[in-house]
Write a structure and sequence with these properties.
Elements lengths: L8 H14 L1 H10 L11 H9 L5 H13 L5 H6 L2 H6 L4 H12 L4 H6 L2 H8 L7 H10 L12 H10 L8 H8 L6 H18 L3
C-alpha cells in the first residue's frame, strides 16, 4: 500500500514543521525560503512523457517541446504510439527521445495500480521502461503521486543544495546524500522541496 500522500499545502506545512524540529538547518532554510510550492500534477502518461522530455535540456527547451507536442496533439499514449518519426522530430524530439516516448506509449502502464503501490514498487515498475531511470521514477512518485517519503538523491541541484546548507566540503554523491536523507524520513519529499527552494534562493542571490 502507498504511504503518506502529500495532497495540499497543509501536508507540506506538517512535514516542514517536523523537519524544522528534526534538523535546525532545515529550520533556517525554511525561514529563508518561506512556504514551499506544492508542485503536484495529475500524473499518468502525460506527466511521465513531460518528465522524459525535460531530461538533459533546459527548462525553456523542455517547455517549448511540450508546447509543440500539445499543438500537434501528441500528448496521449495512443497518438504517440503510432506517430511517425518525422512528426515527433518536428516537435523537437531527438532520435533517442522519440524511442523513449514511443516505448512509454507502448508500455501499457497501469497508472491506477501505480497510485496504490508502495514507493519502491512504483519505482521498480517505472524503471523497466526505456528512458525512465530512477530519477525520473522518483520525480513521478513525488509530484504525480504525492509520495511524502521519496527523495531523488541523484538530483544535482539537491546535492548542491545539501552541500551549501550543511557546509559540506564537496557535493555529496547519490549514496552519501541518500544516507543523509534517511534521517529525514518520513518526510523526505518535503526535505527535497526545501533543498530545491534553498538552491533557487542561493543561486538567485549569487546571480547564477
Amino acid at each position: 500500500m502507498a504511504g503518506r500522500i502529500i495532497e495540499g499545502p497543509e501536508d507540506l506545512a506538517e512535514g516542514a514543521a517536523w523537519l524544522a524540529l528534526r534538523e535546525p538547518r532545515f529550520a533556517l532554510a525554511l525561514a529563508e525560503c518561506g512556504p514551499l510550492p506544492l508542485r503536484r500534477n495529475a500524473g499518468g502518461f502525460g506527466a511521465l512523457l513531460d518528465t522524459i522530455m525535460a531530461q538533459q535540456v533546459s527548462v525553456a527547451s523542455a517547455d517549448a517541446i511540450w508546447r509543440r507536442l500539445e499543438a500537434a496533439g501528441l500528448t496521449d499514449a495512443a497518438r504517440v504510439a503510432v506517430a511517425g518519426e518525422e512528426a515527433l522530430r518536428a516537435c523537437g524530439l531527438s532520435r533517442q527521445k522519440i524511442r523513449y516516448a514511443q516505448a512509454l506509449a507502448r508500455a501499457d502502464l497501469d497508472f491506477a495500480a501505480l497510485a496504490r503501490a508502495p514507493d519502491e514498487a512504483v519505482i521498480a515498475t517505472l524503471v523497466t521502461v526505456p528512458g525512465i531511470g530512477r530519477w525520473t521514477a522518483e520525480i513521478y512518485a513525488m509530484f504525480s503521486l504525492g509520495r511524502a517519503d521519496v527523495f531523488a538523491a541523484g538530483d544535482l541541484a539537491l546535492q548542491e543544495a545539501a552541500r551549501m546548507l550543511f557546509d559540506l566540503p564537496s557535493r555529496p554523491g547519490d549514496r552519501a546524500l541518500g544516507a543523509m536523507a534517511a534521517d529525514w524520513s518520513p518526510w523526505r519529499a518535503v526535505a527535497a522541496r526545501t533543498l530545491w527552494a534553498y538552491y533557487r534562493l542561493r543561486k538567485g542571490r549569487e546571480g547564477v
